[in-house]
Amino acid sequence: MTFEEQLRCVFPDLSEIPEKDRFPGPVEQTEYLISGELKTWPGPFQDIHSPVCVKAGDSHESYRIGHAPKMTREAALEALEAAVSAYDLGRGEWPTMSVAHRIKHIEDFAVRMKATREQVVKFIMWEIAKSREDAEKEFDRTVDYIRDTIQALKELDRNSSRFLIEQGIIGQVRRSPLGVVLCMGPYNYPLNETFATLIPALVMGNTCVFKPPKLGILLYRPLLEAFRDSLPKGVINTVYGSGEEIVPPIMESGKIDVIAFIGSARVADTLKKAHPHPHKLRSVLGLGAKNPAIVLKDADLDTTIPEAVTGALSYNGQRCTALKIFFVHEDIAEVFATRLSEKIAQLTFGMPWSAGTKLTPLPVPGKSEYLDGLVKDAQSKGARVMNANGGAFYRTFFYPAVLFPVNDSMRAYHEEQFGPVIPIVPYSNLDDAMNYVYNSHYGQQLSIFGSDPAVIAKMVDPLVNQVCRVNLNSQCQRGPDTFPFTGRKGSAEGTLSVSDALRSFSIRSLFAAKESAQNKAIIETILRDDTSSFISTDFLF
Known about the structure:
Oligomer: single chain
Strand content: 15-25%
Structural class: alpha/beta
CATH architecture of the largest domain: 3-Layer(aba) Sandwich
Shape: globular
Number of strands: 25
C-alpha cells in the first residue's frame, strides 16, 4: 500500500466507527442564551462540518455534524443590551454580589459542567479532531482551572480583608468589576482557553457577551443549561454566527468595557479600532506567536528530540505555544533533522477516537493547501523535506514536514504556520539566532537546549526582555496555570495566569474614611451586620 493509500484509509466508513465514538447527531442547535432564557432562533443557520471525512463511494466527504444559529446584528445587539442591563452601571445583582456568593454560583456551574463531560469530549473530537485523550485532558484541565481560579480569588479577597490606617485615613482596597465583557476564544482549545478569560471575567462580577469559537461551536450546547441554571439572568449571553457581521456592531456601540479575545492580531486590531472610546476599553488578548527553539552545539539530543517533537507537533502544532522554528548549530543541524524525522515516523496517525493517535485531521478549511504552499516555497528556495512522506496530504489530513535547511528567504521562516510544518535553520554564529528573537514581531516564549551554564546565562538575561517565558531543555507550554502566561510585542495584551487573570478583569477600588469615632462606629456596624458586599471580610480563613 502506498502512503497516499494509507492517508485515504485514515478516513473511515461510518459503519467502521465504534458505537461509543459515533457522533450523536446531526445536532441541529437552535437555542441561544439571553437574559437567563434559552430562546429559539428561527434562522438562518450555519452548517457545521467535521474535519473527519467519511467514505462516499470512491471518495471522501466532509461529515456534516449539525448547524448552529447564524444571528443577525440586531440579535447580537439584543444580547449586548441584556449584559448591559444585568450590569446596570454597577448596580446589578451580579456586580454588587459578595465575592462569597459569586463563588457559590461558579461552583454550582462547575458541578453542572462536570455532568456534561462525555458529551463535550465527543464534541471536541468531532468538531476540531482533537484526540480523545487530549479532549479529555482539556475538559479536566478546565474544571481544574475553575477550581484554581476560585482558590486564587479567595486568597485575593483574604489579603484585601484588612483595613489600612495611613495619615489618619482608614482604607480598604478591594477589586471591583470593570463592566461588560465581550469574550471570544480560540478554536484550538475551544474550552480551556476560552474559559481562561470567561471564568475570571465572570467571577470578578462582570457581565458577558460570549461568542463561542468559530470551530468548536456545538460543544457549548450542553453547557447552555448549566450557565442558565447557575448564574443570574443576563450575566452571560451567547451570540452565534459570522464574527465579521455580528461583532463590529457590538464594539461600535461603545458599551463594551473589556474585550477578551484569543486569535489573530489582525482581528484584534480591527475590533479595538471599532470601539468609539478606546481609552475606555481594556483589552485582554492572546495573539500570534512564532516561538523559536535555539539548539546549542552541546545540546543533549536524547533530551532535545522528544521535547522538540512534542513541542512542535502536539495537536498537530496548532498551539500558540508550539515550537514553530528551530535554530540549530550547523555542526549538529543535519543530525538533529535526521533524528527528529525518525522520531516523527514513530507517531501514530489516524482518527481522534483511536487509542494512541498523535496526528489527526486539521479543522481549518484550506489548511492542508496552505501548508503545502509553505513546503513548496521552501523547496523552491533550496530546502529539503527530511522525513519520509513529509508534506503528503489528503483532504484534511496533512503529514508533518521537516524542512532543512531553511533561510530568511522562505515563507516558513517568517509566517506562523500553526500546523505540522517544522522549519530548521542552521546557524554558525549564535547572534544570528538571537537576532531572530530581537527582530521578531512576536514575543511569547522560546526554548533553549544546551548544557553550558555560562552560555545559557548570557542568553537568558537579554531574552527575558524579549519574550515572557524562557524554557530550558523543554518545550514551550502554557502551564502550570499558576505561572504567568502572556506575551510581549504582538503576542499578547494582559496576563492569563490564574491570579493575574483576576486582576486583568477587575480594578483596585478604595473605600476610605477619616479616622474618627463616628466613622469607626459606622464601619464596625456595617461589618457586624454584613450589609455591604464591598466592606467585608468574607475569607479570613
